[in-house]
Each structure stands twice: as structure tokens, then as C-alpha cells.
Amino acid sequence: MIQRKTQSLAYWLDDYRVDEADHEFLYDVLTEASEPQRLEALALAVISRRCQREESRIRNELTRGLIYDPAERYKVGDELVFPVFDYRLARVLGLRSGENPEHGAFDVLTVRFEDAKGERMFAGALGTPHALNRHGAEVQFGDDKLLTPEELCEEIGDVVAQRIEDHLVSNPKLFVSAGPLWLTSDQMVGVSLGHLNLAEAAIEMNGKPVPTRALLEALELQPDAAETVRVFSLETALYGDERFVQVGGNGQVEWYLRRMMPAAAAAMPEILHYAPVVYDRAALDVELLQTEWELNDELTEGGLAEEAPATLSTATVLLTYPHLIAGTLPLPPNLRAVLPHGEGLCSAVTLVDGRWGTRSQAWVVHAGRYVAGLDGWFGQHKLPVGARITLERSAKSDEVVIDFRPLRGKREWVRTARVVDGRLTFQMLRHQLACDYDDQVALVVADPAEIEAFRLTLAQRELSVRHLVEVVMPELTKLSPQGTAHVKALYSAVNVIRRLPPGPIFAALAQLPAATDTGSGYWSM
Prior knowledge:
Blueprint: H1 9-15, H2 20-32, E1 37-38, H3 39-62, E2 66-67, E3 79-82, E4 88-100, E5 104-113, E6 120-124, H4 149-169, E7 175-178, E8 181-184, H5 193-206, E9 210-211, H6 212-217, H7 227-239, E10 244-246, E11 254-257, H8 263-266, H9 286-295, E12 314-318, H10 321-326, E13 328-330, H11 333-336, E14 347-353, E15 359-365, E16 370-372, H12 375-381, E17 388-393, E18 399-403, E19 406-420, E20 423-435, E21 444-445, H13 448-461, H14 465-477, E22 484-486, H15 487-497, H16 502-510, E23 516-519, E24 522-524
């Protein structure tokens, strides 16, 4: 059976690199394409070409000489093809007798490969079994068992695409990208600063994200060029100008102005920054893991909260203190399945108020795992920390209904945070809450400015998570006649002064000698 290296996944994963032939091939593919190409299509084209070239070369090489078989007899002058050496051709230069106790008598062939100066020796007329023996059988190509280029692409296409992208990026004078699409530089249509200024004015007049083709209508870009090339050229220029941000979701390309976006959409608010903490997840028992899943924190890695079905149409999230202050919503996996997906900095989404039916613009910041632009909505409905907020897909792909379950306005006992004598303290005070909320996560901050100054002071001290838990947990347990506090309350309280997912907090608590699990999520200290 003929072996092909292109059929080996290891070849693509470990050995494949874009060579000069691939470089020229990619340039030709893009030049001849009627429209910009995605990396996935380029990867499939390269894989197909490499498979075809290897197949052709093998068939050609096999016609140049005898296929080497250790059991066969050869004579000086014979030309042999060695499949085990990538089908290289060698000429027999010498022949002598050899003998080995294990193999008996055999011939020793002295050969020289056509692309080498040195000589090598191989066995001939070998009477004992050998892995290269064909026993007179015809060469079997085994085409019916080969993986197709499409099947190979499913397995290693992402690796090949990444290496192709690296190569294209390293040749900016020849290859140009607009998001995930590529063309050659000599196919581009010129886009001037004047064109970009007109695009800026058009977006500002619309007051909302504008598709590339709508912007194209306002510009005079080489009308004799194909529309796909003009769109690509304009998008390339827009990507390269910091005034513009691509905010389309679900495969759509739409443009907005950075200066018109809320600050939280352009850059992560400082209060949401999380410096990853190394901790022992083995310290979390089943109950703590279940609570972690219930909290549905967007920063939780692994475990039950990692994945969410892509078919979800509704998701509920809890509003925590950092997000309330930042005017953002957390973006855990279940909510990512409901909101638009995008490849850029963020994706625009229209939020339809389930209470009043009003529409507002929000921004799904994918890398930051949050949704920006909610500060006004939080204020209108006076939502507290711990509020349960539901988002549901609508008939329009770029609109999502946002809502909460209202409750009769009444005053409830709620944990209230204050800074007293340089330390964070909590009291149970009555506050009016008008929506459904998690009573363990719920809390009120009496003076946000005071808390913010305290938080910044603590950040400079770089305290450990263990230290924060040792300080905050006693403040919470004193509020209960039983001297206990729920781990959700600890999570919510710690996040007032430092952004942390539940895992490190729970692990620190579980490893404190003075902490005792009293059951149902409650701990004493």
C-alpha cells in the first residue's frame, strides 16, 4: 500500500509550513478569485493542491524504476525507487555477497540516490521476512481509503489556516485583509482620506451602525470595479482608521464611530478588570461547585458553566456590584448563546425594554465578556445588586428583549455596605426593592464614592484572596443570629472591593482552618 505523507495528520500539525510554491499558489488563487476569500477556503485550496501534487509525484516516480523490495535480486545499473525515502530514485553501483547468522546469505547492494553524493547499502535477495517485502504484489494506491481534502480540512484546517494567515500577514505589500477576508494589494480600489471623512459624516448623521454597502452608496469608488472588491477596499480602509469600529454581529459587517460609543464599549471599565488567581479547584466540593454554577459568573473557567447550547433563546443573569457601577451586564456562556456573535471589538445590539417597549443601543464586548451601555436602563428601573435580569431573542437578529420580574414595592432587609474606620462593614437595613432578586447576592452600597476610594486603596496593597475572605466573612456572619453567612453573600460582598469569580473565593474559604461548612451553602467562622 502506498503511503502518503499528506494523509498523516502529524505532517500537517508538525511539519507543514507555507513554502514558496504555496506562496505563489495563494497569490494566484486570490488574483483569480472573483471575490475576497476566507482563510478556511484558502486552507482547503492549499490542502487539495498538496494532496494532488503528492499523488502526481508518486505515480510519476514509480514509473522511473523498480520498486525496491529486499527479497528481489538486482544487478548493477538497475534503478530503484524507495517509497520509504519519499520515492527517491537510486542507481545500483555495486553488488557483493553478504551473510548474517540471522538472515543467512543475501546480496549487499551499493546504491547512490540521484540527489546525493554519498553511497548507501541495502539488502537484496533476502530470504527472511522484511517489512518492505511485497511478495510480488502490484503496487496498491488504495484510493478508496484516502481522506479527502475536505475531510483533512475538518481535522487540521484550523492549523493550516493559522499558518497561512501568519504568512499573509508577514507579506503586507502583497496581501491585504478586511476582517476575515483576503485579497491581493493590486486588486484594491483606492480609498482616500476624503472618502473616509464622508463615511464618518454618514455614520454620524444616521446615529446608528451603518452597513458597508450603505456607506459605499455615499462614496464614488471606481464604479467600474466589482462591488465585492469596492466593499473589501472600503472595509480595509475603515479597519485601518481608528475612528471606525466594526460592530456587526452574526456575520454582518456594520460600522460605528468610536467617539460615539460609550467608554465601557471601547475599553473595559477598570472595576471589571480581573487579575487571574491560581487556586486549587479540588478544594471546591459538590455544593460549592453547584453554587458556582448558579452564580453563572462570566469569569468562571471550566466546570459546569463553561458551555451553553447554541439554541438557547432566553438567558438570565445576576447583576453584581461591579457591573452595576460600570453600567454593564455579565456575558456568561448562556447569554453569549442569546446575543449576536461577532469577530471584532464588539457587536451592536438593540435592547427592547420588556417593561416600556423602548429601544436602546448596547454593545456586546466579546473578549471582555460583558455588555456595555446599560447604565441608563439600570437607573430608570432602580435595579439593585442581585437583580435577576432576563434577555430573550426577538424576531430580529439584532434585537433582544431585556426584562425583569417586578415585585410590589416594599421595604426589605438588605445587607448594606459601608466603610467605617478604614474597613468594610455591613449592616442589615431596610431598602425598597421593586424587582425579583437573589436575596443572598443582593446588597446596597450606601456611598459608592466612599467604597470606590476604599477599593482603590486596597488594590494598591495587593492583598491575597485569603486575606479578603478573612476580613469580609466575619462581617457577614455577625448579621445572622446563627453566626453563619451564605457563600453567595461572600461572593457578592468581596466583589464590592475586588473583581473575582466565585472559584478563588470559595477555595480560599474552604481552606481556612477557622471556617466551618454548616450545610446548604452556609458557613461559620
